[in-house]
Structures are given as C-alpha cells and as structure tokens.
Amino acid sequence: MASKPNAPSCTISPLLIVLVLTLSATGCALGPAGRLEAANTAASTAGFQRLTFSTEQFQLTGWLRKSALTTTSPSVLAVYIEGDGFAWVSKTQLSRDPTPKNPTALRLAMQEPNQNHVLYLGRPCQYSMVEAPDSCDSRYWSSHRFAPEVVKATLSAIEQTRARVDATQIILIGYSGGGAIATLAAAQQPGVVALITVAGVLDHAKWTQHHHVSPLTGSLNPISVSEKLLHVPQTHFVGENDDIVPSTIAHSFLNQRFSPSQQTAPAAKAQIISVPNADHGCCWEKLWPQLRREIALP
Known about the structure:
It contains 8 helices and 8 strands. The protein is α/β, with parallel strands linked by helices. An 8-stranded mixed beta sheet has the order 1-2-4-3-5-6-7-8, with helices on both faces. Helix 6 (about 205-210) links the parallel strand 6 (about 190-200) and strand 7.
C-alpha cells in the first residue's frame, strides 16, 4: 500500500536555489550546446567533475562529485540516472538531440548526503551529441530507450566509476525513464543495496497503453526483472498529481513483484510513497532533501 510522507518543509540552500534557477532559465532557452554548458556549470559549482565513459556502443556523459576522487571512505556510490530528456518536440515529432532542458536527476544528485560518493549519469545520446552530432540513432530516445545495449552501457559506466572510487555498495536512483534504467541495471549490477525511483517508468507496456502511444518495441520492460530484485530494498516515489507517469505504473510493478509465484524466499522491503502536491516535473528538487532522509539507507 502506498504511504504518504508528511507535507515537506522545503529548506533549500541558497547555492541550490541559484543552480536550479540557472538550469531552468538557461536550459529552456538554449540549444543542446547551451544545455550542456548550463549543466556543466551547475555541476562544477556543486563540486562535480565531468567525465566521459567509453562503452561498447555509446559515449556516456556523467558528473562525479570531486570528493569521491580524493577520499577512500565510505565505500557507498550513489548513482543518479537521468530521465528521457528532451526526447520529443511534440507528440508526433522527435527532437534532434535528447539533451535535457531541465535535468531533474542532476538536481537531485547535487543534494545526495555528503558522506556518499555521487555519480550523475546522462542517458545515451544526451550531452554527447553536442560534440559528435552523428553519433546516435534517434531510436535510443524513442523505441529503444531501454534497450539491452543501453542497460549494458549504463552498467559499464557504473563499473568504471565503482572501480575508480573503490565502492563496494551501490545505490541506484532513477528519475522518470531513468527509473526504468536503474531498475533494469539493479537486476544485473552486483553490490546494489537499494533501488530508488522518482516518477519512474516501471512498466512501459502499461505506460504506453495509458497514453495510447506506440509500444517501446526495442526496449526491455522493468517489470520483467521484478523477480530478480526481491532481495533489493526498494522505494518508489510517485507524484500525487502526476499524469505523465501515474501511480498505477508503480503499483503494477510491485503487484508483479509480490505475486505468489515469485514468493520463493523472504523479500526485502519495497514501498511506494505518494508525494502530495507533486506532479511529474514539480517539485522534486525542492522535496528531495526530506524525501531522501526518510529512506534508511547507507
């Protein structure tokens, strides 16, 4: 059953307010290069260093909190995975570059508790096409956005970072479509101690049916790996007013997870938390400090 947190008291640092305003104002007005620059400026100001991950098929762009490069303790790596970004110009027209205008997962990553190493990962084709315009096929922000090769690239970037900071425990946090990638990755990545999704697309078949749009024919469906995640503690945040990814999507996922056929061993705690007054875009970055504290994780 979904639970609701108390109405959050949104205490936000002045620095974060500046960064959020910078990302919002510049991201909406500028093209892909400007959006990359805005994200890099905000991340750098918050103590993150830009990294490029070479994987078998993609170049992934991410930002790692610099303290993770100089400290050996603790050994927890929190990985934030971005949503689908600027995937569509309209309901029928794909964008030419999915670099996000408002990188919500980056805003959340900047507020991860200081004791953890933090990696923010853009999705394939986000940010990278600025420097290599012909490096990506648009199917990777449409029908194949959750394809096996996308998950494989994400796992490669996580493993490269895990080795670099010597992390033994991993927390995966995904926003929107990034929640799907985080879930699919959690089923394969060793050392995952928690899975957190924010407005996550956890059953894309049900999601496309809800919106009466074409199915994601080239994508893996997170609900198909629910059985492999029985041992992983999970928290799925849903916006009470979210009509982009309604709460029924998360409930579909957990209903599958708790089906009698899958109860072969004791399962780790899994919960859905319905967040009052939140929709798909508003106002996760303001609510995140309190929501994150409510989860008893490393």
